[in-house]
Amino acid sequence: MQCSGEDRLPASALPGRRPVRSAAPFAPDRRPSTAFAVTVAGLAPVALLLSSLDAFVLPAWLFLLTGGLVGTLAQSRVQRWLAGGDEEDGRLWLRMAVAMVLFGVTTACTGTTFLLPLAALVVGASHIDTSGGRAWRPVAGCAGAVLLALEALVHLGLLDSPLSPGASHGVALVAALVAMLALLTLARTEDDRRALMCEVRSAEAWFRALVQDSHEVLATVCADGTLSYLSPSAVSAWGADPEVLRGTHFLDLLHPEDVLEANARFSQCLEAGGAEPVRAEVRLRVAAGEHRWM
């Protein structure tokens, strides 16, 4: 019997377990027309409040129109259509351009164009989760182009803002830098996560290939001592289906005289973190009630 670091493998790396990939945080998938109507209905009280405060610098109907289109764009079926069917990799620049233009017009309606980088951060986080770290470039590029165009209109006096042109440019610059740093951090984190999951899948595939045709019995023991996996060769060693033994404490399968020795070796393995192999010769109880040395 040999103990190694297998008892410390993450659950996603164990045979039979697949790492679960998180879904992108899109809105509930509705028909585009329904999504548009629901979004407009939700924005209507906001538009009324902004109108009462005389906060609109562009028509309120344009705010509702672009807001409704933003809600429609958030639907998965719309994203798949814009992406040509490949929601993960397809037409990222096109999708980002459409999103940033819509958000840009929405912020322009209230003269708050300097808030566009915050919208870019939200959109970027969603697409980085779906498409990986490479999505930050289309988000940053499209948001930067739209932001420059809007701030140019503010500077030329063609678009009103609650701030002076200089203050608007300053706030926009700070917001853009913060959003850029956040997007880069999210992109690197997502790429690292994907690389790690790829390594885990490769290790799982290697482990499966190793144990499927091996005549030796390989077992994965959790830190609490329960068996989480037994190789198919355990049938000949135990005389029983390995699946029946899953969840059993490994000490319950040993000769009573070997329990203390095996438990000491197992504790030694845990303390070492699996860095060094720990060997022990113990007697294993098989299905027939006999004991075999291992």
TrEMBL record:
Transmembrane segments annotated in the record for this chain: 33-50, 96-123, 135-158, 170-187
| UniProt xrefs under InterPro entries | PAS, PAS-like_dom_sf, PAS_fold_3
Membrane: is it a keyword of this entry? yes
Task: List every stretch annotated Disordered.
Answer: 1-28
Could you tell me which SUPFAM superfamilies the record lists for this protein?
Answer: PYP-like sensor domain (PAS domain)
Please verify whether the record's keywords include Repressor.
no
Q: Which residues form the PAS domain?
A: 203-273
* UniProtKB keywords: Membrane, Transmembrane, Transmembrane helix
This protein is called what? PAS domain S-box-containing protein
